Amino acid sequence: MMTRSEQLYKEAKQYLPGGVNSPVRAFGAVGDTPRFITRADAAYLWDEDGNRYIDYVGSWGPMLLGHNHPKIRESVVRACEQGLGFGAATKIEVDMAKLICEMAPSVEMVRMVNSGTEAVMSALRVARGYTRREKILKFQGCYHGHSDAMLVKAGSGALTQGIADSAGVTAGCTKDTLLAAYNDLDGVRAHFEREGEQIAAVIVEPVAANMGVVLPQPGFLQGLRSLCTEYGALLIFDEVITGFRLSAGGAQKLFGVMPDLSTFGKIIGAGMPVGAYGGKRCIMEVVSPVGSVYQAGTLSGNPVAMAAGYTMLRLLKEQPQIYDQLQSGGEYFFTQLQKIIQKAGVPCQISHIGSLGCLFFTDRAVTDYESARASDTNAYAAYCRYMLRHGIYVAPAQFEAMFLSTAHTRPLLDDTLQIAETYFSAI
Ligand SMILES: *Cc1c(COP(=O)(O)O)cnc(C)c1O
């Protein structure tokens, strides 16, 4: 007999391409079918069949404080009571912008948009407008949303789908996109030596989290900073995942490397569709209506979305112990998981930082896209299906991160570890 989720999936496929609104949700990468979710609270998700899961996806990052946080929910309900949107200036936008500028050390001015994709696309336009140069350097396996110029060796869904270049993207759109390997400063330097005066910006995930989790090696981010400064290119940190997760000031604060522009998403919307890009005042003042780089949005700065994001950021700013809790929870969980895997002798390793981590089913060190690709995706798929069947909702694809939250208490982490141990000791 079909489960309710299976029935809904069958129907969904009639009306939505692949039954979903974002490819990874189809569970194709793990040979399974989607769970249709009805509600979520704290660390739990419930599906249409009444199954309960401990959730390690967290809406792909936003749920740093767990699902359905009462303070965030209340602020959204209050905002709704005043009207869903005005398409006009509001105080909450000013409060939100001020708060982001206070928290992210390199950001002096910010523009709100509706997604991470939009934030990146706009930041690239700003970098090109400001420098009057055309080329952008990105790293293989880094994902920066689905705008045309960035769909070159992108991570995340694009990686598991095996689409290095999406159909429908013209050669003209990607001809100014240069590629380097993550952690390979020499490769970046070679690009600059060849055509440094044409490079507008280097864009990087300061911790790569869309090819699994790949940490920057010591000196990598600093090296990018020096090269950009030397050649007059802008350094863009895509902090859509790392921003407000790795510290209250994002990866830039954690690593002490200041980008010229930053992009945000996910956490700053607390689950609502929000993105933002920001940076130094002299750069951001090229944005319309002050400057000549056009960028607009009917729904940008929507008051309901701002209420959610503002409450989230206020909580993070006012309670620095949240980051100690995320750090110790992550350290405990991923270290224990590593021990379980070692004991079982499975060729798999854990890559992690703070509340972010992943399992790579390979015995080689993972430092970039090539080494991440060496992972056994079938082994991941089998692990994922087992975890799902036992009430643990992990990402339905090898090249995605696990997202812990403050709602992942020690007992919940221990329950998860116990299920993982049963799995790994049996294979
Ligand atoms: C998710 C993500 C994006 C795209 O954000 P959307 O809101 O999905 O458009 C961009 N960059 C990074 C690093 C991301 O993880």
Order of helices and strands: HEEEHHEHEHHEHEHEHEEHHHEEHHEEH
Low-confidence stretches: 160-164
Report the count of strand segments. 14
Q: Which distinct ligands sit in these coordinates?
A: pyridoxal-5'-phosphate
Helix count, DSSP H or I runs of 4 or more residues: 15
The percent of residues in helical segments reads 25-40%
Beta-strand proportion: 5-15%
Distance between the termini: 28 Å
SS content category: alpha/beta
Description:
- The protein is α/β, with parallel strands linked by helices and 427 residues long.
- The chain is built from 15 helices and 14 strands.
- The chain has helices spanning 4-15, 70-81, 91-103, 116-131, 156-160, 171-174, 185-195, 220-231, 250-255, 281-284, 303-318, 321-344, 369-373, 377-389, 410-426; strands spanning 37-41, 44-47, 52-55, 109-113, 135-139, 177-180, 199-204, 234-238, 261-264, 275-279, 349-353, 356-360, 392-393, 402-403.
- It has a 7-stranded mixed sheet, with helices on both faces. A 4-stranded mixed sheet has the order 1-2-3-13. A 3-stranded antiparallel sheet has the order 11-12-14, covered by helices on one side.
- β1 (37-41) and β2 form a beta hairpin.
- α2 packs antiparallel against α11 and α12 (321-344) packs parallel to α15 (410-426).
- 51% of the residues are buried.
- The model is unreliable at 160-164 (pLDDT under 50).
- The protein binds pyridoxal-5'-phosphate (PLP).
- Pyridoxal-5'-phosphate binds at residues 115-117, 120, 143-145, 205, 210, 238, 240-241, 265, 275.
